[in-house]
Amino acid sequence: METLYLIFIDPFVQMAIEPAFLAEVLIGGLMSGVMYSLVALGFVLIFKASGIFNFAQGVFVLFAALNFVGLMDLGVHPILAFIITLGIMTALAFAVDRLVLRPLVNQNPIILFMATIGIAFFLEGFGESIWGGDVRPVRVGIPDTALFWETGFGEILVLSSDLFAGVIAAFLVTVLALFFHFTPVGRALRAVADDHQAALSVGIPLNNIWVIVWAVAGFVALVAGIMWGAKLGVQFALSTIALKALPVLILGGFTSIPGAIIGGLIVGAGEKLFENYWGLPLLGGATEEWFAYIVAMIFLFFRPQGLFGEKIIERV
Amino acid sequence: MTRPGNILLGVKDISLRFGGVRALTDVSFDIHEGEIFAIIGPNGAGKSSMLNCINGFYHPQEGTITFRGQQRRRMRPYEAAAQGISRTFQNIALFRGMTTLENVMTGRMLKMQASFVEQALYLGRGKREEVAHREKVEEVIDFLEIQSIRKTPVGRLPYGLQKRVELARALAAEPELLLLDEPMAGMNVEEKEDMCRFVLSTNHELGTTIALIEHDMGVVMDLSDRVVVLDYGKKLAEGTPDEIRGNQEVIDAYLGVSHD
Amino acid sequence: MLYREAGQFKTSYSADQAMLTITLDRWFVFGLTAFAIIGVPLLASEYIIGSILVPVLILSIAALGLNILTGYCGQLSLGTGAFMAAGAYLAYKIATNITWMPIWLVIPLAGLCAAAIGIAFGLPSLRIKGFYLAVATLAAQFFLLWLFVKVPWFVNNSISGVPPAPPRSIFGIQVTGAAAGNEAKYLFVLAFVIVLAWIARNMARSRIGRSWMAIRDMDIAAELVGIRPLPTKLSAFAISSFYCGVAGALWALCYINSVEPTAFDINRSFQVLFMIIVGGLGSVLGSFLGAAFIFLLPIVLNSAPGWFGYSIASDTITHIEFMLFGVLIIFFLIVEPHGLARLWQIAKEKLRLWPFPY
């Protein structure tokens, strides 16, 4: 009885008693959710266009951030560093396409997935051997002051960098949406996502499209990397935290851009709430390590296609 | 040459929809024991959907399917296999990473009973069964004349041979009803003749009832005892090849008809 | 011309289906096994036995396990470390609580517990395939490790949380724990390796192996020849987890001599995955070659500069190791998905014709 009370009633009582704390937990969760969303977004872009599940997306984030920070430490202006890094990510996309994807075309998706694990390991070692393995702070002038937001039920602490991150993410998603809907390249990308063969037959050059998609994913990775780096410093934990994009995609659906965003926010907020109200008091904490995966696994039983994904119909 | 036989499979008023698309509408026909039964029709007529209903891959919204006098409810494909229905596919569905022999051995899957421990230790029934079924499989391999490719991974075989291996796998299960989805598609004349020979001898020597889909009208008319014609998911006609040949509606469906 | 198959005619199907159909192969494997049992303990140094052969053999068992699931049944797993941990923690728990039970029984029993856990995390394979399944196995990886760390029951409330391996003996010779001799541990591990490898080969050539491969190659067609997908996949999960559980138990009791979570983290899962990719997906031999290769590579990398009189900072070596692993994975996937095992086979085929290739 006591246990049931602690599980089902007490957490909600706590939430009601201290709404300001609840709001802080939620905001903190949503902010880490934005990061998950951005990584997941890169996954979705590549998955939609080429059907490849790019395990290396997390390391892309790290690699992009490392390059950016490394260049800035050499005294390069942030904007120039951004552009150079973007160039490096495009070159990387090109290399991945030529050296890994093309030789493996028409292979089983699992083989391609494992190949991207190989890419992840290579890039991690490569990035570290060039820029070293220390934690590096990113200073791009994002203000990191604490704002106190006065509400009817108490003061809420919000970091301005968090707000900034949210704005950037929203901006990025809008840009991508516009890009997909109103540019020729965007239309081509959507055509490829729908049907490779048909896209080829109307004259869309598939090879270049793949490079473009991987480059766009690299761009998203760069933005994510800078924001993440500004918050926590560029460190190698980035690549493992990025594994969380997997459950995010399960929730949001592998083919949906809004799904990736909403899935990320749900996972971010959900794991913080669970940790603060159930994990810490009842389970000894550190539940953030597994919460997202277990939720995703349970979710798979009921909606394997995710919240926004398309239902997969199999044909014989 | 219609051979009278008991009804093996009865299809009654089958309707199948995918969302708003009607793939099949009120289709009925019977397949008799020992006959070669052809399902023909233009592309998109619902022929493959029909086979998919028969072996449990699709579940029609309306209608009943009776096999050996027993009406079946929603069943899974492996249950259909267990009841004695085997099939081949329009696009070859072999296990590409396995050898011809292993592929054909999977056809014996349902007839093997050794427990897990017996298999893991390869002792007693585990070993006896492997050898006994290997003998059966070799008979099928001889029958279809694919001895020389026994240990070749099927992914490396040419198309025509892959089709033959697929037929071997279906035959290894010793089915009562064999469903062939376009067994001759994409073959040259010689390969087609071979395949026709195999289909006929399967029917005559093993007494297997066969339902096949085929686009080559020459083949259909020569092989089959009876034919059903589908068009836009509806049954257009049913009868012996000669009856079908003379049927005006069928000719219209295939050649188009001018409405003037 | 010494190595050949010409003139070796099989007169029965049973002979044709034997595990090793070429006489010389058979003698080679028997000879190797005999050497491993008798020769190695007599000849090899303590270092080779204790620090190389024991871990390589144990990891081979884990690689065999993952190969059953991924190589044969086509279900990707990133949770190998967790299933190994399950074997390790439960072997500790059983060994310390049921003290009368002989250690050779404790380890398979721990494997069975791991198998049960494997089935639970394999259930989502009913609805999902391929890399979607990777999420379920990641859930196992993170959740199980968290569970073993947070619940002190698993380590008998040990204060450090990292209890030493209990010392146990067979025929009066200690085989587990820090005080056991390397030869004894080696032979104990080897016994498991021989039995489990033999069983894996048997499964691969029986009905169960064929049904796994059928599911891997084309699950829809598999269902249509009468294979039930769920029991087949779950059997692969169970048996794979059993192998991993046994490997984990041996790793904790016979190699690192303690039960600690860091030995089974996600890096372990990746390490074993790399072993089967490099060694050969769907190959028993490949599991051994891959385990040896991936385990030895960092050791060679670390000592190689010394041989040539250079010294390289250890973190640089780690970076090179990462890059090399990445390149090797991609290389093998592109050039030879059947891995080292296939290269070995090609070498044999060449040898068969040698010295007259025409």
Structure in words:
The complex is a heterotrimer of chains A (316), B (260) and C (358). Chain A is 73% helix and 4% strand. With 316 residues, chain A is mainly alpha-helical. In chain A, helix 2 (19-50) packs across helix 11 (245-252), helix 3 crosses helix 9 and helix 4 (78-101) crosses helix 9 (206-232). The longest helix of chain A is centred in the N-terminal third of the chain and has 32 residues, at 19-50. Chain A is globular, with a radius of gyration of 21 Å. The model of chain A has no long low-confidence stretch (mean pLDDT 79). Chain B is α/β, with parallel strands linked by helices and 260 residues long. The longest helix of chain B has 19 residues, at 125-143. Chain B is globular and about 65 Å long. Chain C is mainly alpha-helical. Chain C has a single domain, classed as Orthogonal Bundle (ABC transporter involved in vitamin B12 uptake, BtuC). In chain C, strands 1-2 form a two-stranded antiparallel ribbon. The radius of gyration of chain C is 21 Å and the shape is globular. Chains in contact: A-B, A-C, B-C.
The ordered H/E elements of chain B are EEEHEEHEHHHHEHEHEEHH
Note the gap between the termini of chain A. Answer: 53 Å
Strand content of chain A: under 5%
The radius of gyration over CA of chain A amounts to 21 Å
Which segments of chain A are poorly predicted (pLDDT under 50) over 5 or more consecutive residues? none
Low-confidence stretches of chain B at least 5 residues in length (pLDDT < 50)?
A: none
CATH topology of chain A: ABC transporter involved in vitamin B12 uptake, BtuC
Radius of gyration of chain B: 19 Å
Tell me the domain tally of chain B.
2
User: What's the CATH architecture name of chain A?
Assistant: Orthogonal Bundle
Helical percent range of chain A? over 70%
Q: Name the CATH class of chain A.
A: Mainly Alpha
Multimeric status of the protein = heterotrimer
Specify the helix fraction band of chain B: 25-40%
Q: How many helical stretches of chain A?
A: 13
Structural class of chain B: alpha/beta
Largest interface: A-C, 46 and 44 residues
Shape of chain A: globular
